[in-house]
Design a protein that fits this description.
Elements: H1 3-10, E1 20-29, E2 32-37, E3 52-60, E4 62-67, E5 70-75, E6 79-82, E7 88-93, E8 98-105, H2 106-114, H3 121-130, E9 139-142, H4 148-163, H5 168-183, H6 193-207, H7 214-221, H8 225-236, H9 240-258, H10 263-269, H11 275-286, H12 290-295
Antiparallel strand pairs: 1-2, 2-8, 3-6, 3-8, 4-5, 4-7, 6-9
Helix pairs in contact: 4-5
Length: 297
């Protein structure tokens, strides 16, 4: 479909107070729908916003936003993801501005994140940023204009919502692939300094949950141990030890599900020489012993 024709169809007036396009609604999961919006819901008032993530795709031109009190300049090919409770408004648009607004229900997003095994601590941090928790701005700005795979997915989803709004399985799959791609491109986000520091700590934990330590992390980042410990707890609500244990337990559970390794060997592989201690932690995390967990697979 020519881009001009698609743009015209997107500009059709919304049928309801939320600026929805009637011909661009399609079920995603459990009766919830992904919507192609004619504009930001209710002018960006978080009190009346839809219960989900708003995803803005800058198809051409540029636009200046204020999200959660912070400025964001969105250029052609970039995407802006915003949480449901954060205040947002378009401050200024440039020549040739054209943008597509998507709404994605939180149940759908949460389901994708829960399916990750083992869970990635950075993903929860990204969600906290979207919900403006513990200092997060309330948005994620993906500078992905050069990522052809993401551009193709957005174009496919946009065209499908306009042309084939009832192709449920196709739209669901396309939306899932798009979100997975975006959450995997954290390197394109222009993180604020305080966000980047926490991100690096979480990345270290994910990669070094077996042999890493807060002392080694402090040396790596050149920051005081006490400062890093406080900042990590302030932004995630969990201590360094708790985050490490979550990773160890998740990886142990994965090995129990997918391999025939002995429980003692699994305990050592994820960082525990004290097998009894490993059993206690596993039971606390899953309310069953490693053997019981394995028998359920």
């Amino acid at each position: 479909m020519p881009s001009g024709e698609l743009s015209k169809r997107q500009e059709k007036p919304g049928a309801g107070t939320q600026g929805r396009l009637d011909n661009s609604q399609t079920p995603l999961d459990g009766g919830k729908r992904i919507l192609l919006l004619s504009e930001t819901p209710s002018g960006g008032s978080p009190q009346n916003a839809l219960d989900g993530l708003e995803l803005v795709y800058q198809r051409s031109g540029k636009s200046d936003w204020v999200v959660g009190g912070g400025p964001v300049r969105l250029r052609q090919g970039e995407l802006l993801m915003m949480g449901p409770e954060v205040a947002r408004r378009v401050q200024k648009t440039g020549p040739g501005n054209a943008a597509a607004h998507f709404w994605i229900p939180m149940e759908f997003v949460s389901g994708l994140i829960r399916s990750a095994s083992p869970p990635i601590p950075q993903t929860q941090f990204m969600l906290d940023c979207l919900f403006a928790r513990s200092g997060g701005q309330g948005c994620l700005h993906f500078q992905v204009a050069e990522d052809t795979s993401i551009q193709n997915l957005v174009d496919n989803l946009l065209a499908a919502l306009v042309e084939e709004p009832h192709q449920e399985s196709v739209n669901r799959m396309t939306a899932a692939l798009l979100l997975a791609k975006l959450f995997g491109r954290s390197d394109t986000i222009p993180w604020r300094r305080q966000d980047r520091l926490v991100w690096r700590m979480l990345e270290y934990i994910q990669q070094n949950y077996v042999h890493g330590s807060l002392t080694k992390l402090s040396e790596l980042l050149g920051r005081d141990v006490s400062f890093l410990s406080r900042e990590l707890h302030r932004r995630t609500g969990r201590t360094y030890t708790e985050l490490v244990q979550e990773q160890r337990m998740a990886h142990a559970a994965k090995l129990l599900r997918e391999t025939d390794m002995r429980v003692n060997d699994i305990a050592r592989q994820v960082g525990y020489e004290n097998i009894s201690y490993f059993h206690r932690l596993f039971y606390a995390a899953y309310a069953m012993t490693p053997g019981q967990y394995r028998s359920r697979k």
